[in-house]
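Posted in: Structural Biology > Protein-Ligand Complexes

Title: Requesting predicted complex, adenosine-5'-diphosphate in pocket

I'd be grateful if someone could produce the 3D structure tokens for the following input. Sequence and ligand are given below.
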Amino acid sequence: MFNKILVANRGEIALRVIRAAHELGVKAVAVYSEADRLAPHVLAADEAYLIGPPPSAQSYLRADVLIDVAKRCGAEAIHPGYGFLSERAPFIQAVRDAGLVFIGPSPDAVTAMGDKTAARARMIDAGVPVVPGTKEALRDAAEARTVAGEVGYPVLLKAAAGGGGKGMRVVMTEDEIERAFESAGNEAQAAFGDRSVYIEKYLVGPRHIEIQLLADRHGNTLHLGERECSIQRRHQKLIEEAPSAVLTPDERRAMGEMAVAAARAVNYEGAGTVECLYQDGEFYFLEMNTRIQVEHPVTELVTGVDLVQWQIRIAAGEAIPFTQDEITWEGHAIECRITSEDPANSFLPSTGRIGNLTLPSGPGVRWDGGIATGVEVGLFYDPMLAKLIVHGPTRLEAIDRMKRALLELRVEGVDTSVPFHLRVMDEADFRAGRLDIRYLENHEAELLGASVDEELIRAAALAAALLEEERRTQRSVSRPQASTSASGGSAWRNRAGWSRG
Ligand code: ADP
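-- Reply #1 --
Done. Output follows.
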């Protein structure tokens, strides 16, 4: 095992990796930009180094600086988290060239899966079902028109270098194809420096279901079941769960075997995810994410396997000691991404300093967060502040637990996506497991429009709780702590004191 690793990331995932390292007895080194001096990941690490100004191009994306820090502080390996440099093959190669271990797959595997057209071609060769469409990038708008005609409308134009839903255009009819080809190319150029786009058949109303993988360098490649990620906004996930409400054990096995075949085709090592579209019992390979994903905790909660620890163990050369048959799934887990966005205002990013923070806890609740009171939330980085994850015996119990936990959560200082999540937990189709990737579009009015004011509900719940506490302290004379905190100013501060007491 390593003695010390460097975590080349920030926010909740940096903290998650630091925790995994500490549980393995490994020292963790944090890096931070000038905007992150007070960030929780900096405080949690054994050492921390300033790597530059707030823009990520001058800090978290500075491969040379990160490698230099790792060498100077004596770290043996680098964990990239997700985003930033996690899927950049030249960075992985540079880490290796510096005599360090990259905690993740080889540069070749990342390259093979990084270009979506190349990955599709490879998967077709490996016998993996892909969405019908082109194997190669389109040369020009005329070719786009011809190919789209062959595939049949509606089609989806996609950036070969794509990610995060960028460079993607749904084209319903032939007269839109040329303009869509140009705009998808322009967006891909701006986002990835590569304007190549290709065509896929646009499936109407599939589910996004993905398979988690773990592979070591001793020939073990296992899948850990699926995650349902159909609740998306602009092709970006908002809520994820495991298992999916629809997959049968046979389908799970078939999808798992397909994902294992995909990983084996590129000699994959570490944790990875094969993303699929699923419709009417059929599934199609979309892409492979060659890193840990945001939504990995739901898989951890239902399988009991610590994926981040295994990333580190595998990079250190350990063999996975359990077999496919030994992986079992228990209960149901749900994750809500808590972002600094205002759902009542088209998810407009919200900035500010985090004030009072009351975190949910209790049975089956996990908080993977990267914020703390006093931390400034700006526009330099992704708006995801934290993830709230719950586990329960059944799907409905998990949903009700999530609702309870969301109601306990209090983030002052910025608007968050919490009101949106609360509405989803009460929405009939979600509760019934009737989901597909159009879920948000189809429920926009109930989920995003003005309806019951959650703040009022919370204020009422708080008032009731405070009243109850007041009654209790009056009955008992041996509770000086509770009465001290109850005299402390604002209602929310009272509540914090109350919940701690
Ligand atoms: P990115 O890498 O940009 O996130 P993906 O290929 O992973 O792109 O797709 C993101 C999302 O876009 C999917 O989860 C799904 O909602 C939608 N999508 C992608 N391909 C198709 C398709 N062929 N038909 C319908 N929806 C699609």
